[in-house]
Amino acid sequence: VQLVESGGGSVQPGGSLRLSCAASGFAFSNYAMYWVRQAPGKGLEWISGINVRNKTYYSDSVKGRFTVSRDNARDMLYLQLNNLKPEDTAMYYCAKDINPFVIRPRPSLDQMTSRGQGTQVTVSS
């Protein structure tokens, strides 16, 4: 299993970024996929998920600003980040569910596995 994130960068408040996650080594379309982030000095925070039926879920901190999507034909996961705020500064990771075909609106961290190396998002003026 391999997950490789990309697309991070430095932006000003109010800016946008699109993160990508390339998946390989497993049946991507069979798994719910998640985005989590870790801000400096803080723990991992689940922020978004998309299940095998393309139902999407968001934490309150990003709802209305971030959009998750997936392309099962390309084994790709995406996260569109709009209206970025300084508090969105973090390392962003994608992860897969530990089991196929489950639906978890708000998974716990131990229900995710195989995080990639992450992509850094920095929001500052």
Structural notes for this entry:
With 125 residues, this protein is mostly beta strands. 0% of the residues lie in helices and 47% in strands. It is built from no helices and 11 strands. The strands form 2 sheets. Strands 2, 4, 5, 6, 9, 10 and 11 form a 7-stranded mixed β-sheet that branches. A 4-stranded antiparallel β-sheet has the order 1-3-8-7, with no helix packed on it. A hairpin with a 5-residue loop joins strand 5 and strand 6. It starts with a strand and ends with a strand.
Features:
mainly beta, four-stranded antiparallel beta sheet, 125 residues, globular, 47% strand, seven-stranded mixed beta sheet
- Estimate what percentage of residues fall within beta strands: over 45%
Rg over C-alpha atoms, rounded to the nearest angstrom: 13 Å
Overall helicity: under 10%
Number of strands: 11
Order of helices and strands: EEEEEEEEEEE
Unreliably modeled segments? none
Sketch the major β-sheet: 7 strands, mixed
Mean pLDDT: 96
Query: Could you tell me how far the N terminus lies from the C terminus, measured between alpha carbons in angstroms?
Result: 37 Å
Helix count, per DSSP? 0
- Characterize the overall form: globular
Category from helices, strands and their pairing: mainly beta
